[in-house]
Design goal:
Two copies of one chain form a homodimer.
Chain A lengths: L2 E9 L2 H20 L2 E6 L5 H7 L7 H5 L4 E6 L8 H4 L4 H7 L4 E7 L17 E7 L9 E4 L7 E9 H16 L5 E6 L7 H14 L5 E6 H10 L6 E4 L1 H14 L7 E5 L7 E5 L16 H14 L2 H15 L15 H11 L1
Parallel strand pairs in A: 1-2, 1-3, 3-12, 5-10, 8-9, 8-10
Antiparallel strand pairs in A: 4-5, 4-11, 6-7, 11-12
Helix pairs in contact in A: 1-10, 1-11, 1-12, 6-7, 8-9, 10-11, 11-12
Bound molecules: 3-isopropylmalic acid (2 copies).
One 3-isopropylmalic acid binds next to loops of chain B.
Amino acid sequence: KKQYRIAVIPGDGIGKEVMPEGLRVLEAAAKKHGVSVHFDHFDFSSWDYYEKHGQMMPDDWKEKIGKHDAIYFGAVGWPAKIPDHVSLWGSLIKFRREFDQYVNLRPVRLMPGVPSPLAGRKPGDIDFWVVRENTEGEYSSVGGRMFPDTDREFVTQQTVMTRTGVDRILKFAFELAQSRPKKHLTSATKSNGISITMPYWDERVEAMAKKFPGVKWDKYHIDILTANFVLHPDWFDVVVGSNLFGDILSDLGPACTGTIGIAPSGNINPDGDFPSVFEPVHGSAPDIAGQGIANPIGMIWSGAMMFEHLGEKEAGRSIVDAIERTLAERTLRTKDLGGNADTTACGKAVAEMV
Amino acid sequence: KKQYRIAVIPGDGIGKEVMPEGLRVLEAAAKKHGVSVHFDHFDFSSWDYYEKHGQMMPDDWKEKIGKHDAIYFGAVGWPAKIPDHVSLWGSLIKFRREFDQYVNLRPVRLMPGVPSPLAGRKPGDIDFWVVRENTEGEYSSVGGRMFPDTDREFVTQQTVMTRTGVDRILKFAFELAQSRPKKHLTSATKSNGISITMPYWDERVEAMAKKFPGVKWDKYHIDILTANFVLHPDWFDVVVGSNLFGDILSDLGPACTGTIGIAPSGNINPDGDFPSVFEPVHGSAPDIAGQGIANPIGMIWSGAMMFEHLGEKEAGRSIVDAIERTLAERTLRTKDLGGNADTTACGKAVAEMV
Ligand SMILES: CC(C)[C@H](C(=O)O)[C@@H](O)C(=O)O
Ligand SMILES: CC(C)[C@H](C(=O)O)[C@@H](O)C(=O)O
């Protein structure tokens, strides 16, 4: 029986506080469902490490974590001490690119105990996935500046879409849609305004759709799509977008379900050539770090996604169920959700219900 | 006393039905406030015109409407008959570019009688402006495709930001913020992901802010900014963004206030070299066209913005007041807002209250 090897990277701030709860729940679920898992802990990808070593990660970071079955990641960044582009591009974005994690996957699901900012929406009403292209598109790094410091100054940056890059994310999204009861895919576009790359995206969606005749699909321009997230969140099942559009929709979606504080995410290499990273959507939250009050649900839910990704569907699902039952009890929720549990109490509650 | 000359272009579909109501209200307000205004009607920028002439506008469209004080525009487009890129890029986008309408301005305001999809929000809670750069940025048309129809195929499109283009939109936004009681400006960015153009945008915001010491300003990445539109719409006063970000925010904002069906917009050339275009945010709505049930409020409100732009503040404000009083009465609202008035009855009601 296979033993999974997981690289554990708590990172900064509340990442270090929610990680133990994530591990607690994973261990409980593993025990219950007979999953064998081994955790290796790493201190890099953090401000502490940077302070000592002058870089975010050791030179041999790829050897250290590149052979693990998955990476379980807390949060990185501490803007007052280190600029985001150093901390994020020196770790998270590096993982995405060098481990070819071309899928960014996030659930948008209204949970019990978490009031939606949308009037009249109840758990069950909102339940879909955002699938984001995670390696190219608008985040290209190609471009530059001309005539600096004059009135003629201008900057350009390219959006780059490759056939490989677009087709593989669309394939993943259509497959996900096909596996779900509603079998409905929505593509985010803006081909009426962004006149070269976005029509190409549309073209590839149409081509891919032919291979999935069982999937109903539609497309919306990103402007009206964000409006529809607010007005009709029940319309969606699987929503696929470019790097930028997916980024926007996967913050807006969780906001519509009450808070980005509990949202999980996977940065996935579906081909299995490299490990995938599972991390909560929230950051290191310097403002509340060190107080033991951080909400561990995003970390725990990311662990559930990791188990599902590894093929341990039952263990994963039992964690999501336990999260729902925990959130339903006011006393087990953390302060940000109107409860009075601290980080540990909330984590223990989920672990017991798993 | 100056007589304003307005070019009137109803366009397609419900554009033709809401335009008479817009004119009715403008005439009533003009009479009441002693504004002298003359309307010239044009049939181009419509499917009808295209069918007859094979193009959206006559060759001399610039001579025909370029000397008017403003353009009052209904709606254009009829996707089943003519592709969007022909109808929109052949008229609306042409106006923006060739009349250098570098500001796209839209109010986000929760009105009486229009239920917000956001729980617990009441009129007065949401009241801000979105200022969108309207000529460059992500809508550049520069780019292309290589290795077509092979596995190596890729497309690129440049985002282009010029010092002139960025500085003038920021100046407009800071000036608007300075004129408002809260004096608060929010900049939409994504400099943590889009690493060349967006840091430039941030740099110019910082430089411009120095010239407006009385304005408090902040910035959010577009992903969390869309989330905050839903979670904290009361935080905002003036929000400024690039062509794409402004496009997204100016659909999402009106959605948060209940409907994009009543939202107005201005495509403005602040320097006065060319006429500005005022138009409702909604499109030509082929699905309800011809039934006399379209909501004329977006058209009427756009007229109010036009009067304010021309310097007729009182006349403009009296129209906005009349809209609020009309919307507050269920029987005066159109069907889409739960009322039973038709287009004309709603328009007449506003005209009477002006
Ligand atoms: C129709 C489209 C090209 C246009 C835009 O994106 O500018 C529209 O969404 C708008 O906001 O006026
Ligand atoms: C921090 C930032 C670069 C990142 C992104 O835009 O990809 C974040 O918003 C995310 O969604 O993981």
